[in-house]
Design goal:
The chain is built from 15 helices and 22 strands. It is of the alpha/beta class.
């Protein structure tokens, strides 16, 4: 049990609530308000809490202590509001079969509450007040009654805010006016993982006034090689709170809003109305298309990024610009599993780092009015070759979502139903040799360095590197049938979907690309000669 309360604490009553006939040991901790701190006279204390986060994390800590130490019962209660000298601020108690487990569990609970719960404190001195005090600072001075998290590092440093931005304000395109635009900006980052980590850090460092973090997962060890917001001590803890703490360390002048939950059709519409831009830093098709639909209906710009092993793509939707939304290119949400996740196929940590930084850059371009932002283009980049491609992609006037989209502030409901699945853009390797599908022309989008002689095993092949395409005049016959292929099926799928929108109804994408084809042939499948 973990509770927040405004009434005075009674240790005897709390102890009685833990009593159990199997308990042979009992340990408790009481934290009181003392009248001196660091040589200053304390008049009173004030505690505040983000109740929803604090209670959720407190309950998690109690459960951890019971499982880790095998205790019978455990509880912790923390006061909020104004406290006077001598008041009990926090109480933790544990009953167990033996005293050693009770002592250890009680110590664990109070230490974890101090460092993880969304509770912070202000000390009122005879000569002023402390401001909202950071928990690590309190721990360093041995304060048994001081806990802070959630709004950690809100105590202001001993330098002016503008000192943080001196180098970028020197740029003629930024200056004081541009810096004020960033200060007024409100950006929501959905996903605090490999993409969200650099995006959040760079946006905070640049001086964005309000950063929202929408993330419902907890930190896992496998996250650490690419999610640079976190350290190993955070494993098992909610990412949203950990990310907020790290962002505040980067810039204590940025207001951080924590949304410790996954984005859904129910919570999204209201959430998006509170921000000026959305960054899609997620890794699932369903949530990406949901972000797109929510952003369009809210009339708010969005920056999308996706990564796959060593490559990725970047796209910007701006309701005030002619560029496309996701559904302009892919009207229906791709099927889950059509492209392997990081867990399935692996990822080098720097890849999402680069694309998350590019998302932050596109956001800064938007608010500072800088040139060169993605408007009617989708950027593809391979970090192994450092090759980049830009596909020109204007907005689709028949798009099912953004055609006639509302301006900022309009309201619309997003249906709480599963997104539609892919409508047949992809074909498997067997289609290349199926007589019923003939004639099919294979269009090889790979660059010259990606190809090997005869590796497709088919005769009708057009070698047309993706870097040479111009969607204003696609070099295909609308009446013919084509299968586009690339290395992994990512580039081909995007281009096939766009060509369908431009009036080429018989264009398909080879599922899994040439890597998938190689696996089929190695296993003795179609076209292998077996």
């Amino acid at each position: 049990m973990f509770e927040l309360g405004g009434e005075p604490l009674c240790a005897d009553a709390l102890k009685a609530g833990l009593a159990h006939p199997d308990a042979g040991g009992y340990a408790a901790f009481e934290g009181w308000v003392r009248r001196h701190n660091e040589g200053r006279d304390v008049v009173r204390l004030e505690y505040e809490a983000y109740a929803e986060l604090a209670e959720k994390e407190g309950a998690r800590i109690i459960a951890e202590a019971k499982e880790r130490f095998g205790v019978i019962s455990a509880a912790c209660v923390h006061r909020v509001g104004m406290l006077e000298i001598g008041d009990m601020a926090v109480w933790a108690g544990v009953c167990s079969a033996h005293r050693a487990e009770a002592f250890a569990a009680c110590r664990y609970i109070i230490d974890e509450i101090k460092h993880r719960a969304a509770i912070w404190k202000k000390e009122y001195y005879a000569d002023g007040d402390s401001g909202w005090v950071n928990c690590e600072r309190c721990a360093a001075h041995g304060h048994g009654h001081a806990y802070a998290h959630g709004r950690a590092n809100t105590a202001k440093p001993a330098f002016a805010e503008e000192d943080l931005y001196e180098r970028q304000m020197t740029l003629a395109e930024v200056g004081e006016e541009g810096q004020q635009r960033l200060k007024s900006a409100r950006i929501l980052v959905v996903g605090a993982g490999g993409l969200g980590s650099p995006a959040l850090l760079y946006l905070a460092a640049a001086g964005v006034g309000v950063l929202g973090i929408c993330e419902g997962d907890t930190l896992e060890p496998s996250n650490l090689h690419r999610q640079v917001l976190y350290g190993h001590a955070g494993v098992g803890k909610p990412k949203a709170a950990l990310a907020a703490e790290r962002v505040r360390e980067t810039n204590p002048y940025t207001e951080v809003r924590v949304h410790d939950a996954a984005l859904t059709p129910e919570n999204g519409p209201d959430l998006f109305q509170k921000y000026d831009m959305i960054l899609d830093c997620t890794d699932g098709f369903a949530v990406k298309w949901l972000i797109n639909d929510l952003a369009v209906r809210a009339g708010v710009p969005a920056v999308f990024a996706s990564v796959y092993q060593y490559e990725g793509q970047l796209q910007v939707y701006d309701p005030a610009a002619p560029g496309p939304c996701l559904r302009c290119l892919w009207p229906e949400t791709p099927q889950a599993g059509c492209v392997g996740t990081c867990a399935d196929v692996g990822i080098l940590g720097v890849v999402p780092g680069v694309f998350g930084a590019l998302q932050a850059m596109e956001a800064l371009k938007h608010f500072l009015g800088l040139s060169g932002g993605l408007k009617e283009e989708v950027l593809l980049m391979n970090l192994l070759t450092l090759g980049t491609q830009k596909f020109k992609a204007p907005r689709n006037p028949a798009c099912p979502v953004c055609a006639g989209a509302p301006s900022r502030g309009a309201t619309a409901e997003i249906a709480a139903k599963p997104p539609a699945v892919n409508g047949g853009v992809e074909v498997g390797p067997g289609a290349l040799w199926d007589p019923a599908e003939a004639p099919l022309t294979v269009v090889d989008l790979r660059e010259a360095h990606e190809r090997a002689p005869g590796d497709l095993g088919v005769e009708r092949v057009l070698h047309m590197p993706g870097s040479a395409w111009d969607l204003d005049s696609p070099p295909l016959d609308p009446e013919d049938r084509y299968v586009l292929c690339c290395v992994r099926g990512v580039r081909s799928r995007m281009l096939a979907g766009r060509l369908r929108q431009l009036g080429y109804p018989h264009v398909y994408s080879l599922r899994g690309g040439t890597l998938g084809l190689r696996k089929v042939r190695a296993a003795g499948g179609a076209g292998s000669g077996a």
